[in-house]
Amino acid sequence: MQLTRFACALVCAFSTFGVTCSAATLIQHVRVFDGSKMLGERHVLIDQGKIINADFKGPVRAEHKLVDGKGKTLMPGLIDAHVHAYQDQDLPLIYGVTTQIDMFSAVTAMQDLHKRRDDLKNTQSSDVFSAGILATAPKGHGTEYGFEIDTLTKPEQAQAWVDRRIAEGSHFIKIVMEQGGIGYHFNSLDLATVQALIKASHARGKLAVVHISTLEDAKAALKSGADGLVHLFNGKTLSPHQLQELVNLAKARHAFVIPTFSVLESIAGIKAQDVLNDRDLMQLLSKSQIMPLNATYGMEVKQNLLEAPRQLTAALHLAKVPVLAGTDAGNRGTQFGISMHHELAALVQAGMSPSAALEAATSAPAKAFRLSNRGRIQNGYKADLLLVEGDPSIDIGATRRIVEIWKNGEIVSPLRTQKLQQVAKDNAVKSSAIPLPPDGRISLFSAEKFASPFGYGWMASTDAAMGGKSSVELSIGEPEPAGQASLMIKANINAGFSFPWAGVVFFPATQPMQAADLSNANVLKFKVKGDGKSYNVGFTMQGSYIPLNVGFTAAAEWQEVSLPLTKFKGLDPSIVTMLGFNAGPTPGNYQLQIADVRLLKE
């Protein structure tokens, strides 16, 4: 009788018949975390991209690929329940993140990600389930990224809006309740529209999850029937009444919560030092991929801002409200894949047990987002697996000691080796730091040209490329006291973009947005005179379009500003793409002059 390969594997798994089978992988003597609890030592058989037998007791056959699991733990591949998968997608899988829940992508990007996910031969990248376009107001959060967003202004638009997302392929619906923070403002959907969107999503059998950043919005979203909150919020200690009220709402609505500590810490100015100090993890990152981990949103460390989310996480978990592990990777202070290991530690620090944190990264998000074939070690489930040294149910740090990863049943170690070799090769390349002029001056302004001694040079910059309406006019101004010509910058900042800007930029490489090595400098100096208003000077690095800014004031008289490059938190001078002087984000007219801009070694 001719057996199919799958049938053959089943026979191998469940009988002792003398059948010659094609090669399957047998992981022996391994401790198993099945997605909710730690099981004793057992054998696990996988083949054809599936878990054939999660507790194999049959004979070992000559054709089996044997893996020694002694002293190790096998667990489902990690599921990051909150990412923005727009770049660096070579990373998640090599850190054991086999599935990602993407909270916002352009339609074509989402469709490409879903197509790759549905190909069972995909063994090179994590699977992605995406919300696609998010629901937001005109000039709301989500509209600031430079591509067109289908926005809403009233409840009557909700059902048609949801139906358009479903037609595009959205796996679930994400709704934004966000007013902004200090120094910036977003328009937000009104509560009636949020309620209508949730109702419309449920009418089509789709989950409705809500982005919130305040306690009041969290309560309002849950009262409106949200299936989940995709963030918690920073803040100091909450009262027992505030805690209990939110917990009761989440529990009554059977909602889940994704705290996203990795990005909340970044907002609080806190770096993920545990992973930054882990050489084995960090050696898989290129320079540009390390950069986001070193750059936080908050410029000052404010540990007390984590009191509220930690309190809430502990209380929600105690009340058996599902807490999911999500990093918000794609933001400052995070990186795809590696941040998941920090997020697990953050959940434990917030009061969850290591086993509960593991569940929050495996079976809990699979259940919450209705992913029926992953998140557990169970017969018939996808063979997306992570093998680690030690017992992560006792020491959550054990998830970082990766032995092997399987994606659709295929080992990922060749990808890890390839990435390791590429990073080592790139790091071994001899530095090509740009020789700086003896006086360090990079501004050679004249009536004929805004010149520079190297690079592409100086040019105007505004938010127009992001759909903004700000404008700028550049001209030669009065000389500064030592006789150097100045650049006059007249900017008009308008509110057409969420973070409006206008000013001037210097490209240090021969082409705009290429990386240049400015490691020969450790100080930026310039002279400035202006209208008494506040401005920003910032560096942008390869792999990011968000500058690392430091503020300064343009006083009525000439003054020199001296800034050590260490002041630009997270800056790697070897991969600089741009230096910018900008007005904004407050709307209005601005006028300043800059002169004698120098990069120096002191």
TrEMBL record:
Regions that span the bilayer:
none
Domain of life, source organism: Bacteria
Leader sequence segment: 1-23
NADH:ubiquinone oxidoreductase intermediate-associated protein domain residues: 457-569
Q: Which residues form a coiled coil?
A: none
Checking PANTHER family in the record gives: ALPHA-D-RIBOSE 1-METHYLPHOSPHONATE 5-TRIPHOSPHATE DIPHOSPHATASE (PTHR43135:SF3)
Q: What is this protein called?
A: CIA30 family protein
Q: Name one Pfam family in it.
A: Amidohydro_1
Q: Which UniProt keywords apply?
A: Signal
Location of the Amidohydrolase-related domain = 73-413
